[in-house]
Amino acid sequence: MSAKLPATRKNNWVNIVFFAVTTLVGLIGTPLYIYKYGISSSEIALFVFFVIITPMSITTGYHRQFAHRTFKTNAVIRFLLLFFGAASFEQSALEWSSQHRDHHRYVDTDLDPYSIKKGFFYAHIGWLLFWQHHTNYDNARDLVTDPLIRHQHRYYLLWAIGAGMVMPLAIGAATGHLLGAFILSICLRLTVVYHLTFFINSICHIFGRSTYDIYATAKDNWFIAYLTFGEGYHNFHHRFSGDYRNGVRWYQWDPSKWLIWMLGKTGLARDLRRISDFRILSAQLAGENRRVSDWLTRSGTNTELLKIGEAVQSQYDKLKGNLAKWEEAAREYKRILQRQVADYSKEVRESARWNLGEARQKFHHTHHDWKALLRHYPATA
Ligand SMILES: [Zn+2]
Ligand SMILES: [Zn+2]
Predict the structure, then answer these.
(1) How confident is the model at residue 378 (pLDDT cuts 50, 70, 90)?
(2) Which of 215, 288, 333, 369 lies at 20 to 30 Å from 127 by C-alpha?
(3) Where are the domains positioned within the chain?
(4) Cβ-based burial of 365 (10 A; exposed 0-12, middle 13-18, buried ≥19)
C-alpha cells in the first residue's frame, strides 16, 4: 500500500469555472427568467425531481451504499444510484467514496480531505476549488473490482453530462422549456445541492450535539438533517459509520434511511447493517459519564467534588453492569426463540422472557436514578 499524501495547494480551474458559472447563472438567471417568462408547473416538477433524486443518490448511493457498504442491493438499483449520483457532479462514486473513507479514517488530520481543522471555508468548498488531492484508491479495492463502478469512474464525464445535463435539457426541450431547464434544473439545482452536501463537512463538523462521541468534531445537527436527507446526524455517523441509519431514532428525519428500509422491505435491498441498540446506548451513556468527569476535572479538587465524582462513578458502574445484564438476557431469550439451545420448552421460554423483563426494568430504574443525578450538574445541561 503506497503512503498517503496530504493535499497540496493548487487552483483547480475546471472546478472553479464550473462552480462560478453554475452559481451565477443559477442565482441571477432564475429570478430574471421567472420575471421574463414566468414559470410553468412542468419546470417546477423537473426542478423538484432533480433537487431530490440527485442528493438522495449521493446520500443513499455514494455515501451509504458505496463508501460504507451498509446494505446490499441489486444491479438495477446500483445503476440508478450511480446514474443520478453522477448527475450531481460530485465526482465518480469511486473517487467520492475513497476520499470519504479517508475522511473517516484520518478525520481532523492533514490526511482528511475536508478537515474542519483547516477552517470552515476549506471544509465547505475550498478543498475542491483550491487544493489538489492525491487519491490512490488503496482504500477502495472492493469498489475498483466492480465493473459498473469502474465504468462510471472511467467515463465519469459522459455519465455526469448525460444524466445531469442532457436528460434535463431533453425533458425541457420536449416540454418547450429548454432555457428554463438549463437555468433551473441544471444551474440552480447544482448550486443548491452542492451547498447542502457541503454543509455536512462544514456546519456538521462545528455546530450540534455530540451524543455518541463527545470529543468528535462531527455533530448531530437536526436542522441540517432536514436539508440533507438525514445526513445531519453526523456525530452518530462518525461513531457508527457501518450503520445504514444516520438518524438512529425512529423520529429523526432521515429519508435516506427510510428509502433503504423500504428497499429492504420490498426485497430490493438486503443485509441492512445496524449497530445493536445496546452498543448505541452504551456509547451514549459513556458520553454522559465522560462529560461529568471532564467537568469535575476542570472544577478542581475539594472534598465535595471528590464525593460527587465517586457517586457519579459508582452509579455509572451500576448502570453499565445492568445494561450488560439486560443485553445478556436479551441474547439468551433470542437463542431460545431461535432454538439454538438444547431445551427450548415453553417453561424455559417463559422463564427467559421473565428474566428479560426483569433485567430491562432494573436497567430503567438505574437509568432513571442516573438521569436524576446528572440533573444536578451543569456539565450535562
Ligand atoms: Zn464528517
Ligand atoms: Zn460517512
Answers:
(1) low
(2) 215
(3) 8-270, 277-380
(4) exposed
How far, CA to CA in Å, does 64 sit from each of 22, 52, 61? 27, 16, 6
Beta-bridge partner residues of 132: 8
pLDDT surpassing 50 at residue 381: no
pLDDT in tens, 228-239: 999 999 999 999
Q: In this structure, are residues 85 and 52 in contact, taking their beta carbons and an 8 Å threshold?
A: no
What's the chain's average pLDDT? Answer: 95
- How far is Cα 234 from Cα 203, in angstroms, rounded to an integer? 10
Cα 243 to middle of ligand 2, angstroms: 10
Cell numbers linked to 341: 439451545
Whole-number Å distance, alpha carbon 26 to ligand 2 midpoint, is 29
> Is the distance from CB of 77 to CB of 214 less than 8 angstroms?
no
Spell 153-165 as b/e; 16+ CB within 10 A means b. Answer: beebeebbeebbb
Q: In this structure, which ligand is nearest to the CA of 68? A: 2
Cross-strand partners of 73 = 269
Q: Which ligand is the nearest neighbour of the Cα of 67?
A: 2
Between the CA of 290 and the centroid of ligand 2 the distance, in Å, is: 24
